[in-house]
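**Entry details**
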Amino acid sequence: MKRITFLMISSLLVSIVLSNGAKTNTKTEVPLEIEKQNYTLTVGDMVAYLQTKEEHYPHSDEFIERYQQKSGGYIDLARSKGMVVDKRLHLPNQKWHFFDSWLALTYESTPDIYEQSAKTRVYTYLLCPELLLWIYEACEVDPVKVKLAKAEAEYYKTNKEGMAMTTMAKNMRECVPWEDLESTVLAWMAENG
């Protein structure tokens, strides 16, 4: 019941913000030559795009300050490499998490990862909320949608009982459709050859 009330209030706030003239992401126009090819965005395409992005973004950093995982996965890897792990400093950063933790380890077991579908491997399979938020922000998703996804992740972190991490990630994806990420990366590819 709390979740339903929370989502209804969040939806109402989004409607109010949008009706008062807030602009949504206008980078949704995919160049015709790419659209005609019915191009499947690969992990390699996503990697090339994300390499150009910042290490920190406000919503993912804010989430990390409050909810960064304490151990496991990228946190344990960072500690094993002697890196600073400090949620107040947003370290390790999520760009490092994507490239040096997730991608590097995935490549070891799946050498063809760069040719695989970004929608499947990055958008659908990743479950870590701080990494998903960073990817959404790096892909210039409408901040209202990022805030809704962040609210889903916060709900999960404060009400874990009975909710699987896969459900949390699915709920975040419902706030941020794949097409929001895809259109930004495809437009970047068209501009940058």
